[in-house]
Amino acid sequence: MAPPAKMQTAVLAGGCFWGMEAVFEQLKGVHKVTAGYAGGRASTATYRQVSSETTRHAEAVRITYDPRQISYGRLLRIYFSVAHDPTQLNRQTPDVGTSYRSAIFPQNVAQKQVAQRYIAQLNKAGAFSKPIVTRIEGGHFYQAEAYHQHYYDRHPDSPYIVRWDKPKVAALKAAYPDWVR
C-alpha cells in the first residue's frame, strides 16, 4: 500500500524490532511501521545474516508518518523515553550484539540536524544517569521477513512480547495518552 502524499519516513534502531514496531504503531499520525534492518555493509539483509553479527546491520523500524499529525521530534521523544534505553551499548533487554544497537538513520539533512540537537539537549539536561550511546548513521533499510512484521499483534502471548514489549506499550500509553490512537 503506497503512503498518501506528504508522508515522511523515519528509520530508528533500538533493540529487537518487535517492540519498536509495537510502540510506534500505536501513534496517531503514523501510517505504517515496517520491521527491517538498517546500516551495515552487505548489499542485502536477512534475519539469519544480521543475527550472525557479521553484516553490521541493526534491527530497525521504518516509520511512515504524516508530519502534519506527528513531528519527527515527537517520534524521537518517544524513541528516547519509552521505545528503548539509549544508554545501553550494543544491547537492549536480553538481546546482545551490534544488531541491537541504538541508532538513528536520518532520511535527510533536516532529520540529522534534529537528531543531533535532540541528543545534545538530552545530554545537557542530564536526562539519563549514563551517557547516551545512540549513534547517527547512514545506510539502506531492508524490510525484514514477513514473519517479523506485526509480530506483537500476531503473538500477544509470546513470552518475549509479554516480558519485554507489552511494558513498553503500556509505558507509552501512560506517558503520552493523547498521542495514542
UniProtKB/TrEMBL annotation:
Active site (record annotation): C16
Keyword Oxidoreductase found: yes
SUPFAM superfamilies xref list: Peptide methionine sulfoxide reductase
Catalysed reactions listed for this entry: L-methionyl-[protein] + [thioredoxin]-disulfide + H2O = L-methionyl-(S)-S-oxide-[protein] + [thioredoxin]-dithiol; [thioredoxin]-disulfide + L-methionine + H2O = L-methionine (S)-S-oxide + [thioredoxin]-dithiol
Gene3D superfamilies for the chain: Peptide methionine sulphoxide reductase MsrA (3.30.1060.10)
Any one GO molecular-function label of the UniProt entry: peptide-methionine (S)-S-oxide reductase activity
Keyword terms of this UniProt record: Oxidoreductase
Name of the top EC class for this enzyme: oxidoreductase
Family matches, as NCBIfam families: msrA (TIGR00401)
Functional description taken from the UniProt entry: Has an important function as a repair enzyme for proteins that have been inactivated by oxidation. Catalyzes the reversible oxidation-reduction of methionine sulfoxide in proteins to methionine.
Family (UniProt): Belongs to the MsrA Met sulfoxide reductase family.
Protein name: Peptide methionine sulfoxide reductase MsrA
Source organism of the structure: Stakelama sediminis
Name of the gene this protein is made from: msrA
